[in-house]
């Protein structure tokens, strides 16, 4: 998930720089700064979140194996990747009557997925810690010194 977020952050920075440049050239500095600010706060719910979802979808499928083409066609990966694609598609739709509400709603939906992945990851860490503690309890004292 973190790798996906990093990839998304890199992309949104590059994309935002292009938009800022174009807006600055057409409308001046104030419009450019406004665009940078708006895209900055929205970035946490756009490419960063969408790429996090894709990254979180890929790693359980991939496991410890090197990345293979089959991982990208895995049903579990595809389902979650489609979520990110749908979120992006709805974001880009010209639903002007919903404007800010749409953006905020889509950010909330994306972060619901992210928090679900975080929760699953924390549960996995907890299970691994319990397993280690159980294994340590089984080791005889004379072997642990």
TrEMBL record:
Transmembrane segments: 36-59, 103-122
Alphabetic keyword roster: Hydrolase, Membrane, Metalloprotease, Protease, Transmembrane, Transmembrane helix
Domain of life where this protein originates: Bacteria
Transmembrane helix among keywords: yes
Keyword hit for Hydrolase: yes
Signal peptide: none
A biological process from GO: proteolysis
InterPro entries: PrsW
A GO molecular function held by the record: metallopeptidase activity
Protein name listed in UniProt: PrsW family intramembrane metalloprotease
């Amino acid at each position: 998930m973190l790798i996906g977020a990093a990839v998304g952050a890199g992309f949104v920075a590059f994309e935002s720089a292009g938009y800022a440049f174009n807006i600055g050239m057409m409308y001046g500095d104030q419009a450019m700064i406004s665009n940078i600010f708006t895209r900055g706060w929205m970035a946490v719910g756009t490419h960063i979140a969408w790429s996090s979802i894709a990254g979180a979808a890929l790693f359980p499928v991939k496991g410890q194996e090197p990345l293979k083409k089959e991982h990208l066609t895995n049903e579990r990966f595809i389902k979650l990747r489609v979520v990110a694609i749908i979120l992006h598609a709805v974001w880009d739709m010209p639903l002007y009557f919903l404007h800010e509400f749409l953006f905020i709603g889509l950010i909330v939906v994306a972060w619901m997925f992210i928090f679900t992945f975080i929760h699953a990851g924390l549960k996995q860490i907890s299970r691994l810690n319990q397993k280690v503690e159980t294994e340590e309890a089984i080791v005889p004292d004379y072997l642990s010194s």
